[in-house]
Specification:
By secondary structure, this protein is of the alpha/beta class. The protein has a single domain (2-229), classed as Alpha/Beta hydrolase fold, catalytic domain (Rossmann fold). Helices cover 36% and strands 23% of the residues. Strands 1-2-4-3-5-6-7-8 form an eight-stranded mixed beta sheet, with helices on both faces. The longest helix has 19 residues, at 211-229. The radius of gyration is 16 Å and the shape is globular.
C-alpha cells in the first residue's frame, strides 16, 4: 500500500495504490466521494487488493487543494466538501481518471482488464468513465447528476453496474426515472435499486449506512468485477 505520483498534461497528482499479495491481477480505479482520498476510500482499495485487484484512488481535488482527506462527521467538513464539489471541474476530473486508468494498465503486475468503481461524485464519474473512456467495466454507487448527462448512454460500449438508492436525498425520483428509462433494454447496463435506502448507504459510519443492503451491493459488485475483469 503506497502513495504515488501520476503525471498529467496539466501537472502531477497523487494516488493511493493497494496491491494484491499475489503481485498480479486485474485493476480497479476507485473514484472518491466529495471527501477526498480519505480513510474510507483507502479501505475500499485495501479490500479490493485483498480480493486480488490492484486498486488505485487518484486525488481528484488536486487542482483546488491537494491531499484532501476529510470525513462526513462534522459540519465544517461538510461545508469544505461542498465547496470542493462546487469548484470541481468534471471534464478535467474524467481526464485525470483516464490518465490514472492508463497508468494502472501499465503498472507492473497488472494483468488483463481494468475497471472502475465510484461513490456519490465518484458514482457520476464512473458513469462518465463508461461513456467517455475505454475502461473495461464500471460500477456506480448512487451517482449524483447522472441524469444531466443521460444523453451519453448510447456511448456505453462496456458493462456498467448501477446501484441506486430509492430514497436518495441528492437524486430525486424524477432523476432516477430518467436514468432507469434511458438504460432500459441496454444489455450492457445492470441496475439495482434499493427502495428504502438513502444516499451513501454503503458508507461505513455514515448517517444512512445500512449493513444488509451495503453487503448486498458489494456482493453484486464483487460478482460483476469477477465476471468482467477476471
Amino acid at each position: 500500500m503506497t502513495d504515488l505520483s501520476i503525471q498529467s498534461d496539466d501537472g502531477s497528482f497523487s494516488a493511493y495504490l493497494a496491491t494484491p499479495a499475489s503481485g498480479s491481477g486485474p485493476g480497479v480505479v476507485v473514484i472518491q466521494e466529495i471527501f477526498g482520498v480519505n480513510a474510507n476510500v483507502r479501505a475500499i482499495c485495501d479490500k479490493l487488493a485483498a480480493d486480488g485487484y490492484f486498486a488505485i484512488a487518484p486525488d481528484l481535488f488536486w487542482r483546488q487543494e491537494p491531499g484532501i482527506q476529510i470525513t462526513d462527521q462534522t459540519e465544517a467538513e461538510w461545508k469544505k466538501a461542498f465547496e470542493l464539489y462546487q469548484g470541481f471541474n468534471e471534464v478535467k476530473g474524467v481526464e485525470d481518471l483516464a490518465t490514472t486508468l492508463a497508468h494502472l494498465r501499465k503498472y507492473p503486475g497488472v494483468t488483463g482488464k481494468v475497471g472502475c468503481v465510484g461513490f456519490c461524485l465518484g458514482g457520476k464519474l464512473a458513469y462518465l468513465m463508461a461513456t467517455r473512456t475505454d475502461v473495461d467495466a464500471s460500477v456506480s454507487y448512487y451517482g449524483v447528476g447522472i441524469d444531466k448527462d443521460i444523453a451519453e448512454v448510447p456511448a456505453i460500449t462496456k458493462p456498467l453496474l448501477m446501484h441506486i438508492a430509492g430514497k436518495d436525498g441528492f437524486v430525486p425520483q424524477e432523476a432516477q426515472t430518467v436514468i432507469k428509462e434511458a438504460v432500459a433494454g441496454n444489455f450492457l447496463v445492470e441496475v439495482h435499486v434499493y427502495p428504502e435506502r438513502d444516499h451513501a448507504f454503503t458508507r461505513i459510519g455514515g448517517q444512512h449506512y445500512h449493513e444488509e443492503d451495503a453487503s448486498l451491493a458489494h456482493t453484486r459488485t464483487a460478482e460483476f468485477f469477477k465476471k468482467h475483469l477476471a
